[in-house]
Amino acid sequence: DAVVFTGGIGENDARVRERCCKGLAALGIELDGRKNAASCDGIFDIHRDSSQVSLLVVPTNEELEIARQTLDCVQNAVS
How much is the pTM? Predict the structure, then answer.
């Protein structure tokens, strides 16, 4: 099991991640405040070692995905 934070807010706002995880210990979700506040590149975890659920921050490139899907739509419309 995992909770994945991604996109602009999920990747960059530790406070939002903290608020999302607040009160979820009964579900096995334990946020590590130190890891959550740290600045990292790439995929990184923000859960405590005792957490039953992984908490991950996963970078995305939303603009690239939008461009790819737009290109697919245009190419399909021309075909």
Answer: 0.80
